[in-house]
Amino acid sequence: MSEIKTKVTDESVTDFINSLAGETKRTDSFILLEMFSRITGEKPRMWGPSIIGFGVYHFKSERSSQEGDWPLAAFSPRKQSLTLYIMDGLDNYKDLLKLLGKYKTTKACLYINKLSDVNLEVLEKLVKKSFTESKKKYS
Predict the structure, then answer these.
(1) Could you say which of 7, 26, 37, 130 has the lowest number of CB atoms within 10 Å?
(2) Structural domain containing residue 39
(3) In the chain, at which residue ranges do the beta strands (DSSP E only) sit?
(4) What pTM did the predictor assign?
């Protein structure tokens, strides 16, 4: 059975964000940190070297033999964009995405260059709905 490589660590979330290059990336990351913490009520934890996760669930992949733990909500301030992980997939949020602003997506990732490109109230609704649905689905 294949085990997931990205795991929770004891690294400091604050130290990680403070180490990011670019003031906008750091500021946006602290805004997301506050937003995700408030919405989830969970303590932020580092998952691997660059993902900030909230809560946890255990999964078993239907497509492979991979299984492991993963956060219920997460984001990562990547070099190119802020990546928000929408665990239950973005198909459920087309109505909110129409109102969000400038972004890109894959099946379960929302890519935002900077928070000033999006409507933060809409983003907060999306994160809250996703966390609530993921918690129901995976608990």
Answers:
(1) 7
(2) 13-138
(3) 44-47, 51-54, 57-60, 67-70, 73-77, 82-85, 104-105, 109-112
(4) 0.92
